[in-house]
Amino acid sequence: MTGLTAELVVDGRDPRTPALAPDGRLLCYVLAPATRTGDHLDTELWLVDTDGVVASRRATADTATESRPRWSVDSQTLFFLSDRADRGTPQLHGLTLADGTTTTLTSWHGGIIDHLPLTDPNLVALLAEDEPTEQDAQRARDRDDAIVVGESEPRVRLRLLDLRTGRVTTPDAFGDRHVVELRQRPDGGPLAVLTAASADNDYGPRTGQLHLFDPTTGAAENLGPVAADARSLAWWPGEDGWHLGYLALTPPMLQAGTALIDLAVENRVLRNRTAGLPMCPTELCQTDAAPLVVFADGLNATLARLGPTDLMPLSHHPGRLDNLTATPGGEEIAVLTGTRYQPANVHLGPPTGPLRRITNTRPELDGIALGTQQPLAYHAADGLELDGLLVLPVGRSASEGPFPLVTIVHGGPYDRYADRLQLSWSPSAQWLAAAGYAVFLPNPRGGQGHGQHFAASVAGRVGQQEWTDILTGIDLLIAEGIADPDRLGIAGWSHGGFMSAWAVGQTDRFRAALVGAGVTDWGMLAATGENGQFEAALGGSTGWSGIGPHPHDAVSPISFASQIRTPVLILHGAEDTNVPLGQAVYLHRALRHFDVEHEFVIYPREGHPIRERQHQLDVLHRTCAWFDRWLRL
């Protein structure tokens, strides 16, 4: 067995977005590096014969960013996006399997955002922004580029590409609305078109509407508003006619987890098909009959079929199931999944299981020594059932404790730790286990995997019961002799960064903390973050809610900065629009004011996640160095 290095963590390549051909014989997936070394992320398309006779092979040979593979109905053409001709500007391409030729199908200024091959073999639906007019070009030359908010915002529109002529037309069907997603009815009928009032992440997700569009006649019909943040459209036939389903935030709240909404198209009856379930839908996959639904189910995943009145569980899987794709009849599926000690790969099989692995994109991790990972189940102070994971130091057993313990809180908060390999560029369990730490990965209330009530319980109350849920787990590990109470650390990214900042303002029990892209002031985040209304629902108020103090002040870490004594490492991307850099600057200035030991690192060109290789390496090395400095006695 060999040891884990930072280079092994960041230099791998991961499969993404598998696409199973309608005839089930071929599967295409995107192979993407885990990190970026230049200005562009160079990805590749790979093909796999599902019968396993022929090994995986590259579908294309160019250096480019290739994405969104989609098959023609007859399985003879693979459509995909590539920026091979003009880096950063993706165009639609078609790979003809019969002769292996690849053809560039569009030359749209600004590029194509998404596409959907239709049942009419001559048509492909496109999503793209408007091309600039001559007036736009002249204004750019004159630097007359003032941005009028609400007027200058780009809109993505539905276009139709005629493969016979190469002509792209733009139906005048949805006014000035921004098109989000498309799905054609399985029988070749109309398109379901999801639109929003704008592309603004704060405003758009709350303004969704669902439409029907006939690509042959151009006729359109508005089916009315949809729940916030709708996505993952799917059609299916029912006794009362066609149904349209989608996933969305549970109405009417913005922080109550995800629900599966069922719309009967003919009579406009809406139903929440997942109300009261103790698990959470994550993906909806259309087939010719009833759609398939992936659920986050505690630490694991459940695959089910949506019936007329109920959900029929088909199979259960450890960890996660992501990017589900299926043949039209739903007899065969492909999905990304892994194990506790193996990264996610493409797996194939019937929806009832078992699934067999058909890719191995990280062979360099074979033989690497990893820490033992085990699920935890315990009860919160109020009796609520909770779960999480414990990862022990590499080569050590629980009986050899107590160990220095780092608790890493997940983001979201609507996310979760699943029972899968915990290894990434961000503060991750296996990276710290390789350095000799035990790592606790809690799933406190507010997260995914335990139903809508569990998820909704933190709205307006962040840092309250979710914090005591985490403390209860730490105390359990101390009582069991696994964690050393004098060598505790806490870390997290995004909402996990918030919890880390919150923790050190509530207690001096931690000897060191890492706040990665963390929230320090909920009012400021609601005002400046790209998801302001969602953040306001979490924090409980906004700065314009009248004269303060406001409810969000009581749950903002910055309000407790005078109580912080724990050394804090602050890491943040300079171009983060999700949790803007000002959140980190605020904490840094407060800690400097109160003379608290801390280190503040800003990563240029980075957004909410860190993408560049050297920056990811820095995060990994700096994380270990920080905890080594304070937790090694």
UniProtKB/TrEMBL annotation:
Pfam families in UniProt: PD40 (PF07676), Peptidase_S9 (PF00326)
Annotated SUPFAM superfamilies: alpha/beta-Hydrolases, DPP6 N-terminal domain-like
Protein source organism: Micromonospora musae
One GO BP annotation of this record: proteolysis
MF annotations from Gene Ontology: serine-type endopeptidase activity
Protein known as: S9 family peptidase
Peptidase S9 prolyl oligopeptidase catalytic domain segment(s): 427-631
Keyword field contains Membrane: no
Presence of keyword rRNA-binding: no
UniProt KW keywords: Hydrolase, Protease, Serine protease
